[in-house]
Amino acid sequence: MPDGWVAGTLLIVEESFCRYARSVPEILEVESYRELANRVVGATITRGWADAYAAKKLNSSQAWARTVKGLMVTGTSRRGKLLVIETDSVALGMRFGMTGVLLIDGEAGIDGLFYGPHSFKQAWIRGGLEFNDGRRLILHDPRRLGRFEIDPDLESMGPDALTLTRSDFDGLVRITRGVGPAIKARLLDQSAVAGVGNLLGDEMLFQAGIDPRTPTGLLSTQQKDDLYKAFTSTVRTLKRRGGSHLGDHMDSRFPGAHCPLDGGAMLIETIGGRTTYWCSIHQV
Question: How many CB atoms lie within 10 A of CB 119?
């Protein structure tokens, strides 16, 4: 923690954070972080710091501090779950892992987060930026999976989920060899489509009525049409509601739950490395 971070500021951050930190950051959460980060556009970075966890993709923690000092923030952008802070020199990337949250002087980027920490702790601050106008941007992350990057690689990432076109989607579900991975795993593949996380993936398949275990290459034409409609409507609806955790299936994400649509038993399995829930009746 850098010098000058006063106790009063920490109290304000904690008070605000407890109302926000309840979710896995997916594309909608990171878009909210991007909107919050817009507030520092035009400011000059006077100091940066990072612990060993946040700097894991860099040569050293000191590399972050050396690189960011003196840069002026010119804008923000995002690709999937990667937040990019644009400057008059290099681009600065932020990834939030499972529980990372962006805060600027005590304000978090999104309300009602679901799976993340329910409290603020100074020890969970992994790094951040200080600006010439006195503001501070911090990465708070108890699970230590959030990362800072310098000139992040965008080429390895698929098209952004918030702007996915039908052509992009057709590429996502096109399999050229074999039957391909389970469709849930395909949706989570950030090189195929950037930004879909566990909650969004489950909600899309729930709305489309598709078993998440279905091999991507075996989806019927009708299923592809249904999934594209569900994909676009899900990101639009949940953005309006306020986050990836506000899908229709969320109240049934626990063992023994029943589908809120038809009462069918909710099934649970690990698919694509993530715990997946789906209805035994309408997702076939």
Answer: 10
